[in-house]
Amino acid sequence: MRQRQHVNPLTACLKSFDGQALDLDPSKEIELEVGCAEAQFLIERARQDSDRIYLGIEVRSQLVDEVNEYARAENLPVKAIFCNANHHLLQLLRPGSVSRVYLNFPDPWFKRRHRKRRMITEQLARDLALLLKPGHEVFIQSDVWSVALDAMEIFERVDDLYSNRAGPWSFWREGNPYGVRSWREQHCEEDGLPIWRMMYDRHAAQP
Fold first, then answer.
1. Do the domain assignments include residue 166?
2. pTM, whole model, 2 decimals?
3. What DSSP string describes the chain?
4. With 70 as the cut, is the pLDDT of residue 56 above it?
5. 12-43, pLDDT tens digit by residue?
6. 107 is catalytic
7. Which residue of the set 107, 127, 143, 150 is catalytic?
8. Which domain covers residue 67, as residue numbers?
9. CATH number of the domain encompassing residue 136
């Protein structure tokens, strides 16, 4: 299920939301990956610890269907959801319900005129802060320097909401602490390509 075709998140059909808030078991910890693609990362996390709920947000509907079919067949607590995270996260999940957020290798949109399509924005950072439990983390990875630097600039700007675990304006240098990899991360490491990582903690006080 390795597909990496880009979908323009500004398409009109992705700005409307036909879903509803998720009814999830409040006794279970929730981990959220925004832009989960084929969800290899979440699937491996679920194999590590099946007592949590693993949610993946994705704008490519075919991938959503494939992930959910695979998770059902393997009886894994993974669910992919078709929606635009830049518009609808707060319609899906309750404030303070998420224990951990992953932003793994978002589409780079290299051309300058396309940069407005990049997923990580200040509004997304603020929405994620509302969903995260106080004291819990956002983990960001990218193999594209400009994407990583832009993401850091955004999260450093909202320092009323987050603190950088590595120190202000510093990348996380201790590798991936979760013991699982997305296919993109696996490819980069096998080919010796650089990966820039960041770890931000949600401040203890809610906004």
1. yes
2. 0.88
3. --------TT-GGGSS---------TTS-EEEEES-TT-HHHHHHHHH-TTSEEEEEES-HHHHHHHHHHHHHHT-SEEEEES-HHHHHHHHS-TT-EEEEEEES-----SGGGGGG-S--HHHHHHHHHHEEEEEEEEEEES-HHHHHHHHHHHHHTTTTEEETT-TT----S--TTS---HHHHHHHHTT---EEEEEEEPSS--
4. yes
5. 444 555 556 688 888 999 999 999 999 999 99
6. yes
7. 107
8. 28-202
9. 3.40.50.150
